[in-house]
Amino acid sequence: MPRLKYASVARVVVILGLFCLWLQIMLSASTGGMYRDGGQDHMIQVQGMLVKTNPIRTEEELMNANDTSEQVLALVPPELHKYLTVHPRNNSGNSTDRIAVKNITEIKQAIKRFNEAQTIYNEDIFGPVQNDTVIIAIQVHTRLTYLRHLIVSLAQAKEIDRTLLIFSHDYYDEEINTLVRSIDFTKVMQIFYPYSIQTHPHEFPGMDPNDCPRDTKFEQAVKLECNNALYPDLHGHYREAKYTQTKHHWWWKANRIFNQLQSTTGHTGYVLFLEEDHYVAEDFLHILSLLKSTADKSCPQCEMLSLGTYLKTYQYHVNGDKRKKNMNLNYIQQVKLANEQRRKKHENNPTWNFQVYPHLYTATQKVEITPWHSSMHNMGFAFNRTVWNHIMKQQSQFCAYDDYNWDYSLLHLSQNMPGREKFKVIVCKGPRVFHIGECGIHHKKSNCNASTVISKVQKLLQNAKPYLYPTRVSAQVTAGGAKHNKKLVKGNGGWGDIRDQELCTNMTKVGRQHRHMIFYA
């Protein structure tokens, strides 16, 4: 009997264990399957087949599982809560029911229709676009939560009703469209990048089934006769569509605004470049005007204006001398030291520890005149048609440079303009544009709660409120550090494929249709 009882108990334990394992697998299946930036696989219909795409809903849930926190809402005027309202969703287990399914043909037709119409919403209320109207170009992908808060911050900005917001999308989604078209505080236009991965999932500029896998060796790629075998990047890797798309999109957007829209044909004012995960201070247009006045009076050679800077107060305690000292420790000591540093970092939790620096926000605020550098001045920066004409003269420097980043490509162009110095920028030391996105192509954190970051930025701006709207700025000319003046020799790669270079070049030719280019080894 004892053995029988023991066997019965053992069976129960085994059954319970198997049940728990099955439950865990099912839960993992329902929350896993991450694609790209963390969203679940989503299916849309393409020529009768279901194919995977990158959704926005599950990614939004990952970034902000509790939607907008009460702490954030408390600092948002009640009349603007409508931009943060998430409408009830169908939580059906069938992923195809989560949004209204559109096949790729329908999406392409909708994109073509909207791009041809060039509709400006609210123009009847706020008047037509003038040649000196500030245009705010916002690059949008799929991070809806961040976009909501960017819109809220724009809505609170003084003189925003005198601007034109151009939202440039590389992902067609009705929920994003509905949000953008609900904006009622200024003029709005939507443009849609027509060569996206969404609309070309199985052909270039997406990933063709016969494209070479990223890490394929050159000799092996030639034997495989994959499409781009002869065109690896400078690091020996082959293209990845999800990375090349961002540079293509930025370049198409800039060409579209300066060269192709009817409403901007004679535009001579500034175009301010933002992204969906930026957040602006209420006086950002006031500061932009001050920077322009400063450029006109004190720095006619300054082509760029910059409102953003990366103000993260990370504390790096380990300098070069300490690293050298650590190398002399034995393996056990190095492991212990690394664990201790990791523990301290976790306790201090330095990420996004924004602080208000009194010397940055005062009645007379400081601005810096310095060489433009991509990693320092690529957020909330603006330039006009004169600068764009300089860029167009050197477009080959942008399109042929083996770097999948648009900002480093622009820096390379700036450093290689014949007969003239590289671009100079007037940058606001007290930033008016902040980066709130913790998740995206380059940042994949397990805790992507947008409210945590947004509330810190809101509190920073609340504390700085007495110092907003300064009457003047004090300019200081600097030569820039070694990093600013180091000439780029090699890019970061990811842009060796000749098809990417040709598509980029074709975007500058108004009216020319994209050719389907296939290159075989």
TrEMBL record:
Q: Where does substrate bind?
A: 139-143, 170, 245-249, 342
Binding annotation for Mn(2+): 277, 435
Q: State the Gene Ontology BP annotations.
A: oligosaccharide biosynthetic process; protein N-linked glycosylation
Q: Which GO terms describe its cellular component?
A: Golgi membrane; Golgi stack
Top EC class, one word: transferase
Where's it mainly located? Golgi
User: Pathway membership of this protein?
Assistant: Protein modification; protein glycosylation
Q: Glycans attached where? A: 103
Picking any one GO molecular function of the record gives: alpha-1,6-mannosylglycoprotein 2-beta-N-acetylglucosaminyltransferase activity
Disulfide bridges in this chain: 212-226, 299-302, 399-504, 439-448
User: Per the record, what are the reactions this protein catalyses?
Assistant: an N(4)-{beta-D-GlcNAc-(1->2)-alpha-D-Man-(1->3)-[alpha-D-Man-(1->6)]-beta-D-Man-(1->4)-beta-D-GlcNAc-(1->4)-beta-D-GlcNAc}-L-asparaginyl-[protein] + UDP-N-acetyl-alpha-D-glucosamine = N(4)-{beta-D-GlcNAc-(1->2)-alpha-D-Man-(1->3)-[beta-D-GlcNAc-(1->2)-alpha-D-Man-(1->6)]-beta-D-Man-(1->4)-beta-D-GlcNAc-(1->4)-beta-D-GlcNAc}-L-asparaginyl-[protein] + UDP + H(+)
Tell me which InterPro entries the record gives.
GlcNAc_II, Nucleotide-diphossugar_trans
UniProt EC number = 2.4.1.143
Q: Name the cofactor(s) required for activity, per the record.
A: Mn(2+)
Q: Which UniProt keywords apply?
A: Disulfide bond, Glycoprotein, Glycosyltransferase, Golgi apparatus, Manganese, Membrane, Metal-binding, Signal-anchor, Transferase, Transmembrane, Transmembrane helix
Location comes to: Golgi apparatus membrane
- Topology of this chain in the membrane: Single-pass type II membrane protein
Task: Give yes or no: UniProt keyword Coiled coil.
Answer: no
Return the similarity comment: Belongs to the glycosyltransferase 16 (GT16) protein family.
Q: What is this protein called?
A: Alpha-1,6-mannosyl-glycoprotein 2-beta-N-acetylglucosaminyltransferase
Q: Which organism is it from?
A: Spodoptera litura
